[in-house]
Structure formats: structure tokens, C-alpha cells
Amino acid sequence: MLSPRLHNFLDQQHSSYSTLTHDRTVTAHETASAAHVSRQLFAKTVMLKVDGTLAMMVMPAAYRVDLTRLSRALGGRIAELAEENEFKDAFPDCETGAMPPFGNLYGMPVFVDSRLAGQAEIAFNAGTHTDAVRMPYKEFERLAQPELLWLAHVM
């Protein structure tokens, strides 16, 4: 089941997407595998604090965020990983760690690794550890309006 906020938003925007149900997973790698999606196409959401304010970094599951590079890309702003207890209440309609990459639905900025922008489509968590959404990348970009950055590196 999609997060109600995400489901309503996608429907109101007449978005083109499909849902994928999979076995319960926790990590982006596990989810990509369970959903039969390449780790290059599966977009994981990493929660950050940028100058103390929550933000989302969205990148291929095969990569990890480089906080030094992110800080430079943001003009020297302080970027650090957010602790679970700092963000879990920001997503009341989602299981912790399964939030979709739509910060605009939760009042926070979204940064996306530009390698995702080169993909025809992406998949991502839909608010639970058993559901994902697959959609054209351009549709995601239209809806989430992320800031494109080149940040992550191979794990």
C-alpha cells in the first residue's frame, strides 16, 4: 500500500506510474533485488541535515553519498547524515526508512544525484517496506522538482 500522501499526490497530478509489491526489505539493495529492479534504477532516499535542516538526497542504490562533495556543491553549507530519531516523525504516513523521495510532500528540499537523471525510469520506496513505485524519471523530476547534483560514489 502506498503512503496515502504519495498516492493522493500522484493521482492528483495524473502521474504515470506503476506499483511493485515485494517481500519485506530494509535496505535499498534488498529492495531493488526483491522488486527485480537494477540498483542503478532503484532510487534510495538518504536523510540529511543541511545547516541543521532536514533534506533528502536521492541517488541510485548502488551508490553512497559523499558528504564532502555535497557540502561543496551546496556552497560550503554543512551537510551531515540525519539520525533516524531526527526524521522519523517527519513522515507520519510512512514506515521509518521507507519514505518516498518527494520532500515537497513533507516540507523539505530534495537533492538528486544527476546519474538518476540519465535513466529512462526509476523505482523507489512508496512508504512501506513492501511497496515500491516505478515511473519515468522525467515524471519524478516534474513532480518532486529536485535540485540536480553530481554527488554519490560507488559503494
Q: Structural class, from secondary structure content?
A: alpha/beta
Q: Which percent band covers the strand fraction?
A: 25-35%
Put simply, the count of helices is 6
Cα gyration radius (Å): 14 Å
pLDDT < 50 runs, ≥5 residues:
none
Please give the CATH class. Answer: Alpha Beta
How many distinct beta strands? Answer: 10
CATH topology: YbaK protein
Could you describe the largest sheet, including whether it forms a barrel?
A: 8 strands, mixed
Gap between N and C termini: 30 Å
Count of the separate structural domains: 1
Average pLDDT works out at 91
Instruction: Note the run of SSEs as H and E.
Output: HEHEEEHEHEHEEHEE
The CATH architecture classification is: Alpha-Beta Complex
Shape: globular
- The CATH homologous superfamily name equals YbaK/aminoacyl-tRNA synthetase-associated domain
Which terms would index this structure?
155 residues; alpha/beta; YbaK protein; eight-stranded mixed sheet; two-stranded antiparallel sheet; 6 helices; 10 strands; 25% helix; aminoacyl-tRNA ligase activity; YbaK/aa-tRNA-synth-assoc-dom; ligase
